[in-house]
Amino acid sequence: MKLLISRLKPSVAQLITSSILLGCFGSAFAQQSGLPINAAASVNGAIITNDMVEQGIKVAISQGQKDSPELRKAVIQKLVEVMLLSQQAEKDGLANSEKANSQLALIRQNYLADLELSTFMAQNPITDADVQAEYNREVSSLGPQGMITEYKISDIAVATEAEAQAALDRIKKGEPFDKVARSVSLGPNKAQGGAAGWVQPGQVPPQIGSVLATLGKGQVCSAPIQMQQGWYLVKVEDKKSSKPPTFEQAKQAVRAGLIQKKQYEFVAKIAKDSKIVVQ
């Protein structure tokens, strides 16, 4: 049997088939005259708003799907399905379980963190003038030769300084960097031995960029690097010099770097004014 919304590829979509949905929900979708303004559907009195639908459509489009009436209907059906299951979970007493509470708290924290960052950036945007000024600064810092250094790097990301130092000690004793990365790294490139490809100093956080400038080919940082997300070790696999890109070629990367820097500084300021205890 075909999955309910294989186009959206959600995990819970594997639970209900389109034939069941058409049988159960078809008439409900056809009777929307009694719904309040900005409501796309309701499930046992709980409202699914048009804003929720639009958000679902945006996610689907970001995954490569095309906006269409069929996509909107599929998103609404999916939201109905999720609402039904969540209501049933409430009835079954699952909502108050320790696992549910911890996951819901994490989801809430992540959403609020993203919302805070997006609000901060909306109030403190990176302007075109900022991008141009940063590009000019980076080009002028290259010196009379006007060449930019690129680094082929690998990294190891862990949660604590102690874990980073333990990994660094293994490397200093002769264990290959990529082997240690596959063993302990929490990064998405763990399976690749920490390989992160070619980067320019302006494309990485300043803490890492400043360390890269001190390393030669094949060298590893002498101490763990503290980042917002945890602790890092970095190895320079190779390095090369090249002419800097034009402003048009570089402006997106420059903007991204400025955004990352501004966000890091914002989080660092909050952290400085906070009491943080890590076991």
UniProtKB/TrEMBL annotation:
Catalysed transformations (reactions): [protein]-peptidylproline (omega=180) = [protein]-peptidylproline (omega=0)
Keywords: Isomerase, Rotamase, Signal
The keyword Signal is assigned to this record: yes
Record-listed E.C. numbers: 5.2.1.8
A Pfam family of this chain: Rotamase_2
Residue stretches making up the PpiC domain: 148-238
Main EC class the enzyme belongs to: isomerase
Protein name as catalogued: peptidylprolyl isomerase
Family, similarity comment: Belongs to the PpiC/parvulin rotamase family.
GO MF, one example: peptidyl-prolyl cis-trans isomerase activity
Highest taxon in the source lineage: Bacteria
Classification via InterPro entries: PPIase_dom_sf (IPR046357), PPIase_PpiC (IPR000297), PrsA_foldase (IPR050245), Trigger_fact/SurA_dom_sf (IPR027304)
Signal sequence, start to end: 1-30
